[in-house]
Q: What sequence folds into this?
């Protein structure tokens, strides 16, 4: 039954980290408009910051991120210089009569551990010179354990980092070689121990399924090893094979990729094993300990979703820095040029590097709230959300009809205007969200599998 559902509903759908989703961004939103949006931000509301570090020392063949490979420091150093220029430029567009506060900072990539310890100190110094970091702010960084030096972790502690997200993916050496990501359990163990010794207590880890040569047995072994590291949160992603977008994925032996049935079995095995270890399932693909802020946010109805996935970040404005970084502001979304060279030239010329975006209207905000609630809580009360927006839920009669058709497959339960995903429906939540996506039929991009 589960496999039949997977084959019926496993469409290529957005991950709904925004609405409208990125394929619908356009050049109508430019740097001038974005700078105006920054100038209109409410100084009483804390900001969230995302810094995209596009560098890695080695390419992982499964990678779908915007990244560049170098073993030399010179291009990284030039990038850091441009990033610091962009920070100064964008933050100068905020209301100069007020000093803004920050509730979340996230360094993503690529791999931020491609920076030096001094780079990290300098970037954080630029932020703290211009902004007030709240005492309870989460300051997080994505980490490649192979390039996380002791000096770098020392700098993280000095700069007030509270959380590290560590890419594990799989501990099986055969799988690791097939995706060009070779790292031992002992290395990851030692990195986590060093982080905790520096009072960086929040530990996230990333696992993947759907990789070449993975089996249910091998994945369970990886999960059990990972749990001994006692992470607070785990992100479990299905490998998205998109070689038309990421040419390096052609290096992966496609004949070794699991088929539909195997991917489903791997997903179920990971979910069952992690819950048996005491982790709470969060939305589509996250897991957290009951005392972790993410599990508490889920229980209190405060979980959110943005371009980093599930988050406790409730800031209304997220400002992105670096190539391809996306800003999410009350007025809409704006994305920097993804090409490193073009982003860098724009920044060094003193111009805004925004390439495209989309302004959101009242309809977008309404549908975004519905989709966010479904993605986070796996349930939504259309009546309540529509009341908050000052409209009647009757307008969603066509969407409810489409979703009621899923009740026969046991994916959802519908009671009036309340929609509830079943446990069987959890991995297909994106298919339910798609019923509310008025842009989807006009998408020009290709998306990853729903599971």
A:
């Amino acid at each position: 039954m589960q496999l039949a559902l997977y084959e019926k509903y496993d469409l290529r759908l957005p991950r709904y980290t925004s609405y409208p989703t990125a394929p619908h961004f356009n050049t109508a939103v430019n740097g001038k408009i974005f700078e105006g949006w920054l100038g209109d931000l409410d100084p009483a509301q804390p900001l969230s910051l995302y810094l995209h570090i596009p560098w890695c020392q080695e390419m992982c063949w499964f990678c779908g991120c915007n990244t560049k490979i170098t073993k030399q420091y010179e291009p990284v150093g030039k990038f850091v210089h441009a990033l610091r220029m962009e920070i100064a430029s964008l933050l100068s567009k905020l209301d100069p009569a007020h000093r803004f506060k920050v509730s979340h900072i996230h360094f993503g990539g690529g791999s931020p551990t491609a920076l030096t310890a001094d780079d990290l100190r300098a970037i954080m110094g630029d932020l703290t010179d211009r902004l007030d970091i709240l005492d309870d702010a989460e300051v997080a960084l994505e980490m490649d354990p192979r390039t996380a030096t002791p000096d770098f972790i020392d700098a993280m502690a000095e700069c007030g980092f509270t959380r590290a997200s560590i890419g594990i993916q799989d501990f099986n050496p055969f799988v690791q070689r097939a995706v060009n990501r070779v790292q031992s359990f002992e290395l990851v163990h030692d990195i986590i121990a060093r982080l905790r010794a520096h009072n960086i207590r929040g530990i996230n880890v990333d696992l993947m399924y759907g990789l070449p040569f993975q089996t249910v047995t091998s994945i369970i072994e990886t999960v059990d090893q990972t749990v001994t590291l006692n992470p607070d949160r785990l992100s479990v992603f299905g490998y998205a094979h998109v070689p038309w977008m990421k040419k390096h994925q052609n290096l992966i032996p496609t004949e070794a990729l699991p088929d539909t049935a195997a991917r489903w079995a791997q997903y179920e095995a990971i979910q069952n094993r992690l819950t048996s270890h005491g982790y709470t399932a969060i939305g589509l693909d996250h897991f957290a300990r009951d005392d972790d802020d993410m599990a508490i946010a889920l229980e209190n109805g405060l979980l959110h979703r943005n371009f980093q996935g599930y988050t406790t970040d409730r800031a209304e404005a997220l400002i992105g820095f670096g190539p391809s970084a996306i800003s999410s502001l009350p007025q809409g979304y704006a994305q920097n040029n993804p090409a490193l060279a073009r982003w860098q030239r724009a920044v060094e010329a003193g111009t805004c590097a925004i390439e495209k975006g989309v302004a959101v209207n009242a309809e977008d905000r309404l549908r975004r709230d519905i989709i966010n609630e479904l993605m986070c809580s796996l349930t939504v009360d259309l009546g309540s959300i529509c009341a908050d927006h000052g409209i009647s839920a009757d307008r969603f009669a066509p969407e409810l009809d489409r979703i009621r058709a899923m009740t026969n497959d046991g994916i959802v339960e519908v009671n009036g205007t309340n929609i509830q995903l079943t446990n069987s429906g959890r991995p297909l939540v994106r298919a339910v969200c798609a019923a509310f996506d008025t842009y989807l039929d006009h998408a020009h991009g290709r998306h990853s599998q729903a599971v």
Remarks:
- The first helix runs from residue 2 to 9.
- Residues 414 and 420 are 6 Å apart (CA to CA).
- The chain is about 35% helix and 20% strand.
- The mean pLDDT is 94.
